[in-house]
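In this section we walk through a basic example: taking a raw amino acid sequence and producing a predicted 3D structure, encoded as discrete structure tokens. The instruction is simple. Fold the sequence below.
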Amino acid sequence: MTDEGAAAAGAAGRGEPGYAEMGAAGRDEGEPGYAEAMAELDGILRELEGDAVDVDRLAERVARAADLIRLCRDRIGTARLQIERVVAELDRNAE
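The resulting token sequence is shown next.
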């Protein structure tokens, strides 16, 4: 068993989420992942910076960008908490 597999199995035995469960935690079906959201944000930014900005779609694009930014911030926060849990577990095992 790999170190990751052992850690996931150990976490599962303690009622903690394993690595496999962490990947999509809090993610709704059909909601883009972090990389997809960042790519879409990049596209919106290029669109808004372009010479041919469609004023009729401007508010819609800005609102979508705000939604994607919130989603990315949530993903970063979730990842940070998961990393802190893993590090804490490593610290407990080192003692």
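Looking at the output, two observations stand out. The CA atoms of residues 43 and 49 lie 10 Å apart. The chain has four helices and no strands. In the next section we compare this with other chains.
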